[in-house]
Amino acid sequence: MKKIIDPWGSGLLEDYEKIIKDFGLEIFDVKLFPEANRIMRRGVVFAGRDLKIISDAIKKKKKYYVLSGIMPSNEKIHFGTKMVVENIKYFQEHGAETYILVADLEAASTRGVTLKEARKRALDFHIPAYVALGLDIKKTTFYFQSENKEVMNNAYEFAKKITLNEFKAIYGSADPGKIMASITQAADVLYPQFKERMPGIIPVGVDQDPHIRLTRDVVRRVKERRLFLPSSLYHKYTPSLDGNIKMSKSRPESCIELPEDISLVKKKIKNALSGGRDTLEEHRKKGAIIEKDMVFELMKQHLVEDDRELNKIYNDYKSGKMTSGELKELACIKMEKFMNNFVKGVEKARKQIGRLKFVKFK
Amino acid sequence: MKKIIDPWGSGLLEDYEKIIKDFGLEIFDVKLFPEANRIMRRGVVFAGRDLKIISDAIKKKKKYYVLSGIMPSNEKIHFGTKMVVENIKYFQEHGAETYILVADLEAASTRGVTLKEARKRALDFHIPAYVALGLDIKKTTFYFQSENKEVMNNAYEFAKKITLNEFKAIYGSADPGKIMASITQAADVLYPQFKERMPGIIPVGVDQDPHIRLTRDVVRRVKERRLFLPSSLYHKYTPSLDGNIKMSKSRPESCIELPEDISLVKKKIKNALSGGRDTLEEHRKKGAIIEKDMVFELMKQHLVEDDRELNKIYNDYKSGKMTSGELKELACIKMEKFMNNFVKGVEKARKQIGRLKFVKFK
Questions:
Q1: Nearest-angstrom CA–CA distance, A132 and B168
Q2: Using a CB-CB distance cutoff of 8 angstroms, which residues of chain A are in contact with residue B147?
């Protein structure tokens, strides 16, 4: 079996190899994608489905699309969202038609957020945050689910194709709001194809794979419509600062949200699980255990863009030349810069909101 | 306990008394409704929920609405639909705002009928059939579910309020298409109240009560919206000609559809379960057992408008003066007249379809 390539690997690789096997994913092959972005180059993007067709579309300049949804359930995002946006940006810069939908119906049917409140949150924060993270609004088509009759109508048609047991097998559970939201999401994923059949790629965190499976099942059952099976691209979770595979708001001391007060974030970084040795003497002699260092993982995933710079940090830290305290100090400096830019970027983008290209519905 | 009033009762009364008890319905009280229609007067309309509020609205000329849905799954209706239309007509003539929706989303999500096909069937047959049966199109507001964003959007909000187990408890089963259709139907039932809070009545066959219960549960859970609980009105089934409680297409020899070839219908009537005695002599002496006579039940429910005429038939048949053959002959004559008028009425109404008042959606 091919292995996930992660030249600066964390200790969580085995978990992802299990996911690939259990879900039947392809291992991500960076060679398929010209000018791969940071998270692709570093094995953070680690798997996908039907990636060859997207690679071909890029290389042969054929039509394809990239699509993602905003779930406006609160006014924070996390590092996972940042990675989704970075992957959208990659495909947007490599010829994809770009669609971003606001999943206001999902917010209503699964979280009880009113459509009005969801709209406000999307316009005030989420869309500006996506722009701050690199989305080109001039090249992006936006819509609200609640306004998209074609998506809703198709959701009803698709519902006939799925049984409750299949739904439970895919999602592990089922309740009416979740069922409606998920089937509607399948219609969203296919929406760009309703006008014109073309391949599409959906970059997601691996926990979103059930939606991809449901959508692919639907496509297979409406053969007569000749839709492309959507391709998908998975990134790893940004690990929790305490070494867990995923940050969780239920452990706030190990979780960083965007935006978050920087002095609090620095404190969390200082307390993060480290690969440094118990004494300076031991550290200088043996060097850091990088695989278990969550701050290095954070820098690799998010804070250091340049590969040579990352390599130098890796080598210095691994050899013991750089201490855990120095690494954390550096991470804090970089995090502060990033967070400042993000907050400023959101404010700036908020002013551009009038220029968004929304789908006009009759 | 109060009893269902049915002066010309069939043998199926006990079944309906069980339904009333099991579902927690009110027994229909004809005195609540001025100028009661034929099926109300005759105990065919036998139960309801919250009927007093509708009675008050009629008597005090307050705003209220009557609403019903067309399920365009094929190009036939049955006697149950006829009774629904007769009850709609009653409320329409007694001050109700009238709404008829085409449940094209339900046809798609539960039967796999495309929206396009559903629309065609509704316009070609179902709406004209409703007009032929007495609906006043000038006083009726129509819409297609698939065009009504407000209904769809509310369906998603309502979905959050219902669990899968509640759904199963109400419907006995659950699959994604049925869940979406039923929750959407709840939004339909409440749609007239989204603009202005007012009581509404939904005339249905008793097998449709789960939708009423679901809708009432939803209303109770969105208290802050201050919606009226929908009232409902139930008619008995037109019994199968073989004596079963309900006609079923799976027993075609005992089931009459609208429209249906009249020579076939006459044959079915001739073979129907009769209350006539084995010999003429016995019949003259003891008279018919009316409770088990399905042809008399058909005449009572549908074919004889005038109460005095029905009374005379009842007395003649019960006393043995009229034979079973004579009753069936009379039923055939009346059925032929009805079916001819229905077919002509549908054709005529088809030409008026351009004059329907559809909701204009932005």
A1: 46
A2: 149
Residues of A in contact with B152 (CB under 8 A): 146, 149, 152
CB B156 within 8 A of CB B77: no
Task: Calculate mean pLDDT across residues B32-46.
Answer: 97
**pLDDT above 70 for B43:** yes
Q: What's the mean pLDDT in A39-68?
A: 97
Of A146, A153, A175, the CB nearest to B115: A153
Give the total residue count for chain A.
Answer: 362
Phi and psi angles of residue A205, each rounded to the nearest 5 degrees, phi first? -75, 155
Cα R_g (chain B), whole angstroms: 21
Helix axes A324-350, A307-319, angle to 10 degrees: 150
Using an 8 Å CB-CB cutoff, list chain B residues near A152: 146, 149, 152
**Residue B236, token pair as written in the block:** 């008995």
Q: Does residue B118 sit at the A interface (CB-CB below 8 Å)?
A: no
Instruction: Using CA coordinates, name the residue in chain A closest to B153.
Output: A146
Q: Is B176 in contact with A167 (Cβ distance < 8 A)?
A: yes
> Which chain B residues have a beta carbon less than 8 Å from that of A171?
none
More confident residue, B354 or A202: A202
Tell me the CB-side half-sphere exposure of residue B248, using CA atoms within 13 A. Answer: 7
CATH number listed for the domain at residues A13-240: 3.40.50.620
Cβ distance B179 to A181 less than 8 Å, yes or no, reads no
Taking an 8 Å cut-off on Cβ atoms, the answer to whether A181 and B110 are in contact is: no
Fold match flag (A13-240 vs A252-345) = no
CA-based nearest residue to B297, from B325, B316, B269: B269
Q: Do A147 and B149 touch (CB under 8 A)?
A: yes
| Residue A109 host element (H or E) | helix A104-111
The alpha-carbon gap from B49 to the nearest alpha carbon of chain A, in Å, equals 26
Q: Give Cα separations from B148 to B25, B127, B162, B175 (angstroms).
A: 31, 18, 22, 23
DSSP state of A235: E
The complex's ipTM works out to 0.91
Instruction: Answer yes or no: do B108 and A157 touch at CB < 8 A.
Output: yes
**Is the CB of residue A118 less than 8 Å away from at least one CB of chain B?**
no
Residues on chain A touching B163 (C-beta within 8 angstroms)? 175-176
Residue spans of the domains in chain A: they are 13-240, 252-345
Instruction: Please name the helix (run of DSSP H) or strand (run of DSSP E) that holds residue A263, with its range, or none.
Output: helix A262-270
Q: Which of B352, B297, B359 is nearest to B132 (CA)?
A: B352
CATH number belonging to domain A252-345: 1.10.240.10
Long-range CB contacts for residues A14-20, cutoff 8 Å, separation at least 24: A15/A245, A16/A46, A16/A47, A16/A206, A16/A236, A19/A47, A19/A206, A20/A46, A20/A47
Q: What is the pLDDT of residues A209-249, one digit of tens each?
A: 999 999 999 999 999 999 999 999 999 999 999 999 899 88
Cβ–Cβ gap A156/B111 under 8 Å: no
Geometric angle at alpha carbon B97, from B96 and B101, rounded to 5°: 120
Both tokens of A307, joined, read 């590969």
Q: What does the DSSP 8-state code read for residue A303?
A: I
Whether the pLDDT of residue A267 is over 60: the answer is: yes
**A145: three-class secondary structure by DSSP:** helix
Q: Would an 8 Å CB–CB cutoff place A71 in contact with chain B?
A: no
What are φ and ψ of residue A45, in 5° steps?
-75, 120
Cβ contacts of A149 on chain B, cutoff 8 Å? 146-147, 149, 152
Please tell me whether residue B147 adopts helix, strand or coil conformation: helix
